[in-house]
Amino acid sequence: MTYDILIADDHPLFRSALHQALSIGLGPDARLVEAESIAQLESRLGEKADWDLVLLDLNMPGAYGFSGLVLLRGQYPQIPVVMVSAQEEASIVVRSREFGASGFIPKSSSLEVIQQAVRTVLDGDV
């Protein structure tokens, strides 16, 4: 099965690293597309509404706090969203779940942890 994954992060270096980690971890089973802002994310979602997963940075241009997550949950409730952030406080993780995130990946995580977390969500084990 091929998975369509949208990586939304405003930092090019982290976006590239995440892209590479998922390419290695999922191999040819992953089609990865990137967005660097909420506006670009909305454009990508407008082009195709049946994404298998969105990896969403908490702090993105065009979003304030959890507004990007709230937008996705409201307009695309069928798409799992995993928050990715350098802010790792327990309260942020809890709020992410309360606002409908399927998971939370700290940016300090190892590549193996990121790959496993994404695989878990794609397998529907959350």
From TrEMBL:
<dbReference type="Pfam" id="PF00072">
    <property type="entry name" value="Response_reg"/>
</dbReference>
<dbReference type="GO" id="GO:0000160">
    <property type="term" value="P:phosphorelay signal transduction system"/>
</dbReference>
<feature type="domain" description="Response regulatory">
    <location>
        <begin position="4"/>
        <end position="122"/>
    </location>
</feature>
<dbReference type="InterPro" id="IPR011006">
    <property type="entry name" value="CheY-like_superfamily"/>
</dbReference>
<feature type="modified residue" description="4-aspartylphosphate">
    <location>
        <position position="57"/>
    </location>
</feature>
<dbReference type="InterPro" id="IPR051015">
    <property type="entry name" value="EvgA-like"/>
</dbReference>
<dbReference type="InterPro" id="IPR058245">
    <property type="entry name" value="NreC/VraR/RcsB-like_REC"/>
</dbReference>
<protein>
    <submittedName>
        <fullName>LuxR response regulator receiver</fullName>
    </submittedName>
</protein>
<dbReference type="InterPro" id="IPR001789">
    <property type="entry name" value="Sig_transdc_resp-reg_receiver"/>
</dbReference>
<keyword id="KW-0597">Phosphoprotein</keyword>
